């Protein structure tokens, strides 16, 4: 009997001990994952990813294109110096491999490596032995490949098309057709016309479940007009805060409490570049202005020509009365 009790207690104690060890191990793993989390920014919105590597050497093309220009140039310089140092070390290890190079002088073979990698060949220094010729030949072939890769990556970075859209600094909630409406004005920053423009507006809200748990939910906001056949000047995106809207009944305080984040994406075809361009912008809860509306940014000249002032895209004024937004803003059925 005592033996049975002792076995049960021993077993229970062992499980408890294992539980503590597992808990400690789990805590360590959580700390590990927290340290390995990659920070990602989308405008002013920031989030983290676990299990995703920021620098994946198996995909060097994406890595090279995703780097900023300072990072890209610094990486190229570092690789260039490392390659030349490596080949200079090979020449330096065998004295006499490079003619006219002083023995055990690393500077001479380093500059000879730079000349060889660039296939310049000034003539003062040249391979003097079979070993030197073999190393120089390998470096020349590598230099041709390096130059081709750098040229291609630089061209890709320079040739990436951009939409050049001008977003208002603040979305507004104003009265339109007697209903509270979320508005966001966008301007075409290019001299040409964009075609087949499509816009999507989404909101990210912090929602509480009946059990008291909080989670983030992304919902699409229905736009009064989400497509323009031609986008020459400005475009006001409009979402009515009616019974179908996820933001129905929201005011400034509730928007901040829900940590609402607005995300707008616009995609259009640029006929000059003959390609599709796109852009994305996000807004924090503090950016949304209630009881304000956009001031006129398009005026009509004396000859009847519309003139858009893109510097006034985000100029606000109090929402004091009914005011129609110029341009294509509403759905056709709303005007019938």
Would you kindly provide a written description of the structure presented here, covering whatever features stand out?
By secondary structure, this protein is an alpha+beta fold. It is built from 6 helices and 18 strands. Strands 5, 6, 7, 11 and 14 form a 5-stranded mixed beta sheet that branches. Strands 8, 9, 10, 12 and 13 form a 5-stranded antiparallel beta sheet that branches. α3 runs antiparallel to α5. The protein is elongated. The N terminus is likely disordered.
Using only CA atoms, what is the Rg?
32 Å
Mean pLDDT rating: 84
What fraction, in percent, of the residue positions are helical?
Answer: 25-40%
Q: What is the global morphology?
A: elongated
Strand content: 25-35%
| Uncertain segments | 1-26
Order of helices and strands: HEEHHEHEHEEEEEEEHEEEEEEE
> What is the count of helical runs?
6
How are the elements arranged and paired?
Layout: H1 2-36, E1 38-42, E2 45-49, H2 60-66, H3 69-93, E3 98-99, H4 106-117, E4 126-127, H5 130-159, E5 165-167, E6 172-176, E7 179-188, E8 194-208, E9 214-221, E10 227-231, E11 234-240, H6 252-257, E12 261-270, E13 275-283, E14 289-290, E15 292-294, E16 298-300, E17 306-308, E18 316-318
Parallel strand pairs: 6-14
Antiparallel strand pairs: 1-2, 3-4, 5-7, 6-7, 7-11, 8-9, 8-10, 8-12, 12-13, 15-18, 16-17
């Amino acid at each position: 009997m005592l033996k049975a009790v002792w076995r049960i207690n021993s077993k229970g104690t062992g499980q408890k001990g294992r539980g503590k060890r597992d808990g400690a191990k789990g805590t360590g793993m959580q700390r590990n994952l927290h340290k390995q989390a990659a920070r990602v920014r989308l405008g002013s919105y920031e989030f983290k990813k676990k299990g995703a590597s920021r620098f994946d050497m198996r995909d060097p093309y994406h890595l090279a294109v995703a780097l900023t220009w300072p990072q890209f140039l610094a990486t190229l310089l570092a690789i260039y110096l490392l390659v030349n140092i490596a080949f200079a070390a090979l020449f330096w290890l065998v004295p006499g491999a490079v003619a006219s190079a002083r023995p055990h002088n690393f500077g001479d073979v380093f500059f000879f490596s730079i000349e060889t990698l660039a296939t310049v060949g000034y003539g003062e220094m040249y391979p003097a032995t079979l070993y030197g010729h073999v190393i120089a030949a390998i470096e020349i072939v590598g230099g041709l490949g390096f130059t081709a890769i750098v040229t291609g990556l630089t061209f890709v970075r320079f040739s990436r098309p951009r939409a050049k859209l001008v977003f208002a600094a603040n979305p507004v909630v104003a009265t339109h057709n007697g209903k509270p409406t979320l508005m966001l004005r966008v301007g075409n920053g290019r001299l040409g016309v964009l075609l087949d423009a499509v816009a999507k507006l989404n909101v990210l809200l912090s929602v509480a479940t009946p059990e008291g748990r909080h989670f983030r939910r992304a919902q699409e906001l229905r736009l009064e007009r989400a497509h323009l056949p031609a986008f020459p000047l400005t475009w006001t995106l409009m979402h009515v805060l009616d019974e179908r809207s996820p933001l129905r009944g929201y005011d400034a305080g509730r928007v901040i409490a829900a940590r609402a984040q607005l995300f707008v994406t616009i995609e259009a075809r640029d006929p000059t570049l003959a390609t599709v361009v796109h852009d994305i912008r996000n807004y924090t809860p503090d950016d949304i202005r209630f009881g304000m509306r956009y001031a006129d940014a398009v005026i009509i000249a004396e000859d009847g020509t519309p003139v858009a002032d893109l510097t006034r895209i985000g100029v606000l004024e109090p929402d004091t009365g009914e005011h129609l937004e110029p341009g294509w803003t509403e759905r056709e059925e709303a005007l019938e």
